[in-house]
Amino acid sequence: DSSRFGLFLMCLNSLYKIVLCLMRRFVSHNDRINAPIAGFIAACTSIFEVESRRQLFTVLMMSRFLAMGIKAGETNEYIPKI
Fold first, then answer.
1. Are the CB atoms for 34 and 27 separated by under 8 Å?
2. What is the pLDDT of residue 79?
3. C-alpha angle with apex 50: 57 to 11, nearest 5 degrees?
4. Which of 4, 8, 62, 74 has the most CB atoms in a 10 Å sphere around its CB?
5. DSSP single-letter state for residue 81
């Protein structure tokens, strides 16, 4: 179980970095586009994880997503100027 968890984390981090670097090199230098795509592709490695731990990761990632959304909503950077 421990080695399976370590393998999952290694695949998740490695795949994210590889996809992000390849997209920066061949597609676009804009990380606002590249990072979510790389994150989605890397999250596909969760298929290899046990169901109970997958549910825990889902709850943790959703809380992180909501916190980032609230933080982005508080800044004026994302509000278009009229």
1. yes
2. 53
3. 70
4. 8
5. P
